[in-house]
UniProtKB/TrEMBL annotation:
Molecular function per GO: heme A synthase activity; metal ion binding; oxidoreductase activity, acting on NAD(P)H, heme protein as acceptor
Pathway: Porphyrin-containing compound metabolism; heme A biosynthesis; heme A from heme O: step 1/1
Cofactor(s) listed in the protein's UniProt record: heme b
Protein localization: Membrane
Swiss-Prot/TrEMBL keywords: Heme biosynthesis, Iron, Membrane, Metal-binding, Oxidoreductase, Transmembrane, Transmembrane helix
The protein's name in its UniProt record: Cytochrome c oxidase assembly protein COX15 homolog
Broad class of where this protein is predominantly found: membrane
InterPro entries xref list: COX15/CtaA_fam, HemeA_Synthase_type2
TM annotation in the entry: 62-82, 143-161, 173-191, 211-233, 262-282, 347-372
Top-level taxonomic group: Eukaryota
Topological type in the membrane: Multi-pass membrane protein
Amino acid sequence: MNLMCVASRLSRGGFPSLTKGFKLTAFQPHLRRTTVTLAGESVQRVSVEEIPAVGRKWVGRWLFGCSGMVFGAVVIGGLTRLTESGLSMTDWHLFGKRPPWSQEEWEREFAQYKSYPEFQMKNSNIDLQEFKFIWWMEYGHRQWGRTIGTVFLLPAAYFWHKGWFTRVLKKRVVLCGTLIGLQGLLGWYMVKSGLEKERFQEPSDIPRVSQYRLASHLGMAFVLYSLFLWNGLEVTFPAQKLKQITSQARNFRKFAHVTKGWVFLTALSGALVAGLDAGLVYNSFPKFADRWIPSDLLAFSPTLKNFTENPTTVQFDHRILGTTAVCLATALTVWSRRGVKLPPRAYSAATALGAMAWMQVGLGISTLLLYVPTALAAMHQSGSLITLSFAIWLTHELRHIKKIPK
């Protein structure tokens, strides 16, 4: 008996034993979603729109791949900053431009760089070969960003056409695409701040990008990475549910979210450290030279200006935030081993978060004591993203621990 016959008999009162207690609210065979209302009970929507297994597999791989591409962009961006290459390209094109091929084209590009503050005030002694290195570093970073846009957009269009996105995932895909576009614009806005000649008038000025724009650029990259990772986990490894939710488990979940937020805040403070070269101010630990509290902690006026523009204060804050973050992560790990009932994978996530937090602190201290070597500093920045990844994994595994059933 086909579906239209069933609908006809239901509308005429057929199948009385089946229709008792039920009310048919919508039945349209040409739609992909059917809604059934249970009379006498709370309303419940039953969806027959399911992503096929092959769709979940490829959508999950695509989301994890995009998160990996964003991770790579953060690493390459860190290397670009550490090698002081970010201001070598003094123009921006939406779809990029081909690199110089001939000696004449390289000379023209170098001459353009010479007219900006970084060369005039800092790099006046570099030759063409040295310029080529920093130019290729920045070019690679920009092209990687454009590749992310392509890797995101083309599969997204195909999966959307195939119907492999749920209604919620469609909204998140649109959000991710918007953030990718804004990230590219914000990247150029950041670079532009280091090319503005009016910002560098005094001989003591150091040509560099605005630390505020750098923090915004890195922060948006972290948000984009988090979205891709969370949705990849949701599609590929749905969070496990508990048969019985306890108040202790709910408190653990809240604490895990606080820790995740604190890790994110610590990473943002690291962007301010990078933007002001604050890692080169005091290269001792745990003291600042011979003092626990540096004498120039609040040297700027007004006082609030110190927290974003005073290298000493910025480094001090980053140390405090990092120390607090490792304490929070350690507390989560210990708590998870003290008998709290959690989903099975949450225990592994909590342990991984605690271990990575301590490794990140070790990388940070080593970077400081060794005067910020490029390789170690890049590992420290990557470590912040890995630490955040474990925090995201943990909170994802706890997503069903919300209300205690009555």
